[in-house]
TrEMBL record:
PROSITE patterns: PNPLA. One of its GO terms (molecular function) is hydrolase activity. Keywords: Hydrolase, Lipid degradation, Lipid metabolism. Residues 10-210 form the PNPLA domain. GO terms for biological process: lipid catabolic process. InterPro entries: Acyl_Trfase/lysoPLipase, NTE, PNPLA_dom. The keyword Coiled coil does not apply. The keyword Hydrolase applies. This is Alpha/beta hydrolase. Pfam families: Patatin.
Amino acid sequence: MSSDPSTVAIACQGGGSHTAFTAGVLSRLLRDSTLERERDVEITAFSGTSGGAVCALLAWYGREHPAHEPDDLLTDYWSELAASGPLDRTVNRTVRVASRLERMGVPLLEVSPYQSPAALWGRREFLRLLEEHVDFDVIPDLLDGGEPALLISAIDVLTGEFELFREDDLSPEAILASAAIPYAFQAVEVDGSYYWDGLFSKNPPVKDFVTNREIPDADEIWIVKINPERRERVPKSVDGIADRRNELSGNKSLNAEVSFVEHVNEWIAAGYLPEKFTHTEVERIALDRPDLGWRTKLERSPEFVERLYADGEAAAEEFLDER
């Protein structure tokens, strides 16, 4: 390893089940620590939103905990998340059927997550699975000041303000707050405030890598991107319009964050900023599956999850080869 490695921050965009792709990317990047040991890379931070928050947490925790590896944690988590048991398969099939009926224009009963047993079950299962893979009680013992930063995004329901949960205040509820889709989960209480899914705010946090002076400046930011940026044709079907609307919404905050970093780079090049500010290159590792609509973000069949995970591993391998 060289004496002056490239510093890298990794940002994970949220996107429901599609973030199995993100898990595959991180699994390959962090496997056996070869990224940092053999490729002259030092990871300075992870960030994530929604499903990307879970992936970022597992990657960070597996890297810092002496008894775990990111690759194993990510693989095990997503294998268990896949709907393999009888109850899980029934729930997954019910979601698919309901989505299909809604697409056909069949009116369905709308139930608030505050009145839905399914929402309570979903919350309980989310927390159970998370705590099964991450021992939050030991996290304070892992913090010695030399670990990468971890930034988890959520939004305060009442004030509309962004919230970034850091590695020193992590809890299962903080991760759920970032993943709490309003129509599927009750607002999540953390320290007296109530939060919804971070897709409304920073998806994922990016500009904080260059504005937060507690985080070492990154030479590069690698964004694991779920939502497609461009489409070839204007959508005209109801499904196509809904898909594109979801993609644009998911990319809006990300593009604003990246635009800020690019402006800072321009100010640095023009000499407007002190020398302590350094140029940051932004790279993307993107999911290339134009056939996937937004409704498949709720799909959890083992075959679907495994395919996206493998796609992520392949995309990361290609990224590293080209780099």
